[in-house]
Design a protein that fits this description.
The complex is a heterodimer of chains A (298) and B (352).
Chain A (H helix, E strand, L loop, with lengths): L3 E12 L2 E12 L3 E5 L6 H8 L7 E6 L2 E2 L6 H10 E4 L13 H12 L5 H14 L16 H13 L5 E5 L7 H18 L2 E6 L2 H7 L2 E6 L2 E7 H6 L4 H9 L5 H6 L15 E6 L2 E5 L1 H7 L2
Chain B lengths: L3 E14 L2 E14 L3 E5 L6 H8 L8 E10 L2 E2 L5 H7 L4 E4 L3 H4 L6 H12 L5 H14 L5 H5 L8 H13 L5 E5 L7 H18 L2 E6 L2 H7 L2 E6 L2 E7 H6 L4 H9 L49 E2 L5 E2 L15 H14 L5
Parallel strand pairs in B: 3-8, 3-9, 6-7, 7-8
Antiparallel strand pairs in B: 1-2, 1-4, 4-5, 9-10, 10-12, 11-12
Helix pairs in contact in B: 4-5, 4-7, 5-7, 7-8
Classes of the chains: A alpha/beta (298), B alpha/beta (352).
InterPro entries (chain A): AAA+_ATPase (IPR003593), ABC_transp_ATP-bind (IPR050319), ABC_transporter-like_ATP-bd (IPR003439), ABC_transporter-like_CS (IPR017871), Oligopep_ABC_C (IPR013563), P-loop_NTPase (IPR027417)
GO biological process, one term (chain A): transmembrane transport
Organism (chain A): Rummeliibacillus stabekisii
């Protein structure tokens, strides 16, 4: 396997008395897509936001390219970190400033990082970014409200790409879009990854899209990662009862099987202090106590 | 065959805006039998929500205009009815469940009282005591634990899924004949979505209610619908039984929708099939077939003349020139067909 680009160790994020993220650990490898799935309130978005330093984490350690992201940093190092790691947000209506044109939105990063100072060069770069995400050069002069939801999300992606990042956190980037537009954006993300060797942390609640785009998947619930493995393993061979329950809830476009399909309800089992991550198969981790794992894996 | 409860004939709805007249619904026809579930599928702006709101006469006028058509509910046209007459039908005969359970409930009123209100309003014989008893029964029916205790709580004390159950309890309070559910599970998590759909199926079985289910999620449609209407640019472009739509789709837009869904079984490095472009502007609908500019199989005639509904089987219709006897034979795209075959093989079915 290739090198680790991100290492998360024992990340805890507490808001008041609520532990939104409760001591999770995982690695992300260069060039892969790690899917982070779970239902609302499970802590998946909080995890993404802690990694990109939108929150100061309560406890734990996050290393990006070997360096502690919360360690003491010079202004220059911090800028470099911000350039390397970018985020795509869920709501393409709320995440674009309505008073700026698409060009100005993309340009903002150049301004901050002092890139493409020559005006002609900058215009050229904005145009080529718009083309990369499937828009036209002429769109640079339009305001956000003149675009459809799918087009707005493309602007969000162009902005994220503008500084040549190596790592992108996509927080539910397609949930707000229509089905046919979702497919367009997912294809675009896949293509960009192939061309630029990007690494993605793809946060979502839609398990079928996550399966499609991810190399590995981490399933979260109540601030903990309950299962982590390759997409194939998670779908073909789920071990944690919560993962099984989630998978059984996805409706498929197959009416005959749907009419007889039985959903598996999930009964929460308290995990005591003994619960840990077990590597059940190489690269396939399940969270629980020894007895639980033995019981689930029968 | 059971009785027809609802018949919509050539419904056209426009909205007057500064930018011009938006033709949101452009001649929609469908019917609904007693105890049946019809799913209306489409993307945002396809006119599915406008159609369903029109059935309740919830289109604000102005800017909305019921331009043409009839909505026959038990044989009676709803369009000419006055607001006062409509009030008797809303809730009583036709009830609606909305997408967002938080905005559908009154945050300052205990949920029990909100259910009682509906019972007392629609049943003149009901007393406060009998209404309260019935409200608690309803909470129990929709699967809310400890109904007596929950009766006295406010909406904010409920989770999203539990709130949607309360909304369903309110919708059922007057025992409507028709339940319109507009994206009732879109705001919910998948496991909760599955529970709510189970609940709606159970209710339908017990009370023989007819359901119109508006959604953009084809998986949910496959699970709940008896029949499906696919909408695009204000029109129904394909209409048939759930099996016909999923196993023998005939309209290229339906192919596109099915192809855009990721396949859980295989497809590692393939890209998803997408529908290029975006839906047309309905202030100025394109001439001919509105889907033509996004249709890879479009022919010359698609840009000139609007296709009629072609009949595929007794129950299956599609609005595309590809079904004209003179049109070239275009098979279902390979990737979509492959997936359908995969599902059928797994279901142990050869032909549908």
């Amino acid at each position: 396997m290739s090198e680790k680009i991100l290492e998360v160790k024992n990340l805890t994020q507490q808001f008041g008395s609520i532990k939104a993220v409760d001591g999770i650990s995982f690695d992300v490898y260069k060039g892969e897509t790690l899917g982070l799935v779970g239902e609302s309130g499970c802590g998946k978005s909080t995890t993404g936001r802690s990694i990109i330093r939108l929150y100061d984490m309560t406890d734990g350690e996050i290393r990006f390219k070997g360096e502690d992201i919360n360690g003491k940093k010079s202004k220059r190092d911090l800028k470099e970190f911000n350039r390397e790691m970018q985020m795509i947000f869920q709501d393409p209506y709320a995440s674009l400033n309505p008073r700026m044109t698409a060009g100005e939105i993309i340009e903002e990063g150049f301004e901050i990082h002092g890139l493409y100072k020559n005006r002609k060069e900058r215009k050229e770069k904005i145009g080529s970014l718009l083309e990369v995400v499937g828009l036209n050069r002429e769109h640079a002069n339009r305001y956000a409200h003149e675009f459809s939801g799918g087009q707005r999300q493309r602007i969000g992606i162009a902005r994220a790409l503008s500084l040549n990042p190596s790592f992108i956190i996509a927080d539910e980037p397609i949930s707000a879009l229509d089905v046919s537009i979702q497919a367009q954006v997912v294809n675009l993300l896949k293509e960009l990854q192939r061309k630029h060797g990007l690494t993605y942390l793809f946060i979502a609640h839609d398990l079928s899209m996550v399966k499609y785009i991810s190399d590995r998947i981490a399933v979260m619930r109540r601030g903990k990662i309950l299962e982590l493995g390759t997409s194939e393993e998670i779908y073909q061979n789920p071990i944690h009862p919560y993962t099984k329950s989630l998978l059984s809830a996805i409706p498929l476009p197959d009416p005959i099987s749907e009419s007889t399909r039985v959903r598996i309800p999930y009964e929460h089992e308290d995990t005591d202090a003994e619960a840990t991550m077990h590597e059940v198969f190489p690269g396939h981790f399940v969270y629980g106590t020894d007895q639980q794992i033995a019981k689930w894996y029968k | 065959m059971s009785e027809t409860l609802l018949e919509v004939k050539d419904l056209k709805i426009n909205f007057k805006t500064y930018a011009g007249i938006v033709q949101a619904v452009r001649g929609v026809n469908f019917d609904l039998k007693q105890g049946e579930t019809l799913a209306i599928v489409g993307e945002s702006g396809s006119g599915k929500s406008v159609t369903s709101n029109a059935l309740m006469k919830l289109i604000p006028q102005p800017p909305g205009i019921y331009d043409q058509g009839q909505i026959l509910f038990e044989g009676r046209d709803l369009i000419p009815l006055t607001e006062k007459e409509m009030t008797k039908i809303r809730g009583n005969e036709i009830a609606m469940i909305f997408q967002d359970p938080m905005t559908a409930l009154n945050p300052t009123m205990k949920v029990g009282k909100q259910i009682m209100e509906v019972i007392l309003k629609h049943n003149k014989k009901a007393t406060r005591d009998s209404a309260k008893k019935r409200a608690i029964e309803l909470l129990d029916e929709v699967g809310i634990p400890f109904p007596e205790k929950r009766f006295k709580q406010y909406p904010h004390e409920f989770s999203g899924g539990m709130r949607q159950r309360v909304v369903i309890a309110i919708a059922l309070a007057a025992e409507p004949k028709l339940l319109i559910a507009d994206e009732p599970t879109t705001a919910l998590d998948v496991t909760i979505q599955a529970q709510i759909i189970e609940l709606m199926k159970k209710i339908q079985k017990n009370s023989n209610t007819s359901i119109i289910f508006i959604t953009h999620d084809l998986g949910v449609v496959a699970n709940i619908a008896d029949r499906v209407a696919v909408m695009y640019a204000g029109q129904i472009v394909e209409y048939g039984s759930v099996n016909e739509i999923f196993y023998n789709p005939r309209h290229p837009y339906t192919w596109g929708l099915l192809g855009s869904m990721p396949d859980l079984e295989n497809s590692e490095d393939e890209l998803l099939r997408t529908i290029p472009g975006s839906p047309p502007d309905l202030t100025n609908p394109p001439k001919g077939d509105a889907f033509a500019p996004r249709n890879e199989f479009a022919m010359q005639i698609d840009y000139e003349e609007e296709p009629p509904m072609f009949q595929v089987s007794e129950t299956h219709f599609a609005k595309t020139w590809l079904l004209h006897p003179d049109a070239p034979q275009v098979p279902i795209p390979e990737a979509v067909q492959k997936r359908i075959d995969g599902y059928l093989a797994k279901d142990g079915v050869k032909h549908v």
